[in-house]
Model the fold of this input.
Amino acid sequence: EPEVTQTPSHQVTQMGQEVILRCVPISNHLYFYWYRQILGQKVEFLVSFYNNEISEKSEIFDDQFSVERPDGSNFTLKIRSTKLEDSAMYFCASSEEVPSQDTQYFGPGTRLTVL
Amino acid sequence: AQTVTQSQPEMSVQEAETVTLSCTYDTSESDYYLFWYKQPPSRQMILVIRQEAYKQQNATENRFSVNFQKAAKSFSLKISDSQLGDAAMYFCAYRSFASGGGADGLTFGKGTHLIIQP
Done:
């Protein structure tokens, strides 16, 4: 069964450094999403992406974040200058084109630790 | 803005018994989708079951079923014949209906930690 994959599984970085989290969505999916989950808290929506542009974003997704689909398979989340509070689990998800775009399939997540 | 509330931080059930996890939500929309996701210790989010708000029939997936009460804005998950592998965090989630496309994010509740007693 097709799956969303994410790399790396765990990323450790120093405060102020840039990180890029990578995702490979399910191949026939056209909607892509990033979520984060701070330890012990609920999963929060960051951004959605469709047709090579941002479709929706939350108030969390400020100027330090950016997303890109650099090629036909990868979908990336860049955090330009990491802060301690960016430490969290980051999940990528994807969904099909209509009519099943409602169901999002999640990757296994990347644990980001900012020191 | 929509909100999702899971009032049970933790639930415990004996193996082979039935347990029900509660979820309520607040929305002014009439069309939407509701989901239950499971997050085991590996922390991967796994879809358990989904419900379209326009459908009156409650969704069922093997041992998992929902009780969807649209007027009450309630969406509970029933797990029958609980198994040790069901132990996980369970998150209720809401998604707006996007008739013209769009990519609305999911709104999650805070989760319920389900413990299965052998």
About this structure: DSSP finds no helices and eleven strands in chain A. Chain A touches chain B at residues 31-33, 35, 37, 41-50, 55-56, 58, 89, 91, 93, 95, 98, 101-109, 111 (CB under 8 Å).
